[in-house]
Amino acid sequence: MLLELKAVSKSFGSLVVADAIDLQVGRGDALGIIGPNGAGKTTLFNLITGGLRPDAGSVWFDGRDVTVVPAQQRCFAGMGRSFQVPLPFEGLSVFENVAVGGAFGQGKSVAQVQDECLDILALTGLLDKANVLAGQLTLLERKRLEMARALATGPELLLLDEIAGGLTEAECDQLVATIREVHARGVTIVWIEHVVHALMAVVDRIFVLNFGRKVQEGEPEAVMSSAEVQEIYLGIEA
User: Fold this and answer.
1) Phi and psi torsions of 169, nearest 5°
2) Does pTM top 0.90 for this prediction?
3) Which residues contact 169 (CB under 8 A, 6 or more apart)?
4) DSSP label at 233?
């Protein structure tokens, strides 16, 4: 098992944002996470990657208990993530942004990661933008750069946080194709997304959160056709 959460809980005062969550992600899996706004999805990512420490329970990665391991060390161990709002270094070029991810995420020099970064730029459709300042990119290009920077850290596990949000249908299709290629290269994917049709084009399992609790988990079609999930997530009265 590449990633395992065992009864992970987190509260902010009286607000429970993760309620004894159990989750298993095998090597090579593609898992989608859905839930309404405020369900605790991004909090779950922060607990996995070390941005937050759980109040109870444990986080295991590649057979090791990483519950108290700092985020940077988890990155070195093989966790990479994107953020919901892309925040590139706008005064640096696209290549330099990716090189920063590669150098600091892998503990190497820029020269050591240069060829790898160029390959990632090609994979994410940004090679022709390599020398463009990141501040000049479109939203789709920023989303692609966010993923490219995460990939540059050399992850075994890639966590994507609403990376399709705000894109047109055509742009979304392009992004899905890229994510499928990343997964085909052997990277394990955990993807939070509200654009459900994009998610279902990639993942083989969906995990549903609501108010910090696991509601359902299973094959995408079965989960999305569940009356409980439709009522909670889609607002359709069961």
Assistant:
1) -60, -45
2) yes
3) none
4) I
The token duo for 20 is: 């004894």
**164: CATH:** 3.40.50.300
Instruction: Quickly tell me which residue has 């395992």 as its tokens.
Output: 4
Domain span holding position 38 = 1-78+155-238
Question: Could you give the 3-state DSSP secondary structure of residue 122?
Answer: helix
The model's pLDDT over 55-101, given as tens digits with 9 standing for 90+, comes to 999 999 999 999 999 999 999 999 999 999 999 999 999 999 999 99
Q: Which residues, other chains included, contact 15 with Cβ-Cβ below 8 Å and sequence gap of 6+? A: none
Tell me how long the chain is. Answer: 238
Question: Do residue 185 and residue 138 come from a single domain?
Answer: no
Question: For 203-230, what is each residue's pLDDT tens digit?
Answer: 999 999 999 999 999 999 999 999 888 8
Same domain, 1 and 99: no
Q: Is the same domain home to 62 and 95? A: no
Residue in this structure with the two tokens 């079965």, named with its chain if needed:
222
H or E element, residue 198? helix 196-200
Residues 37 and 94 in one domain: no
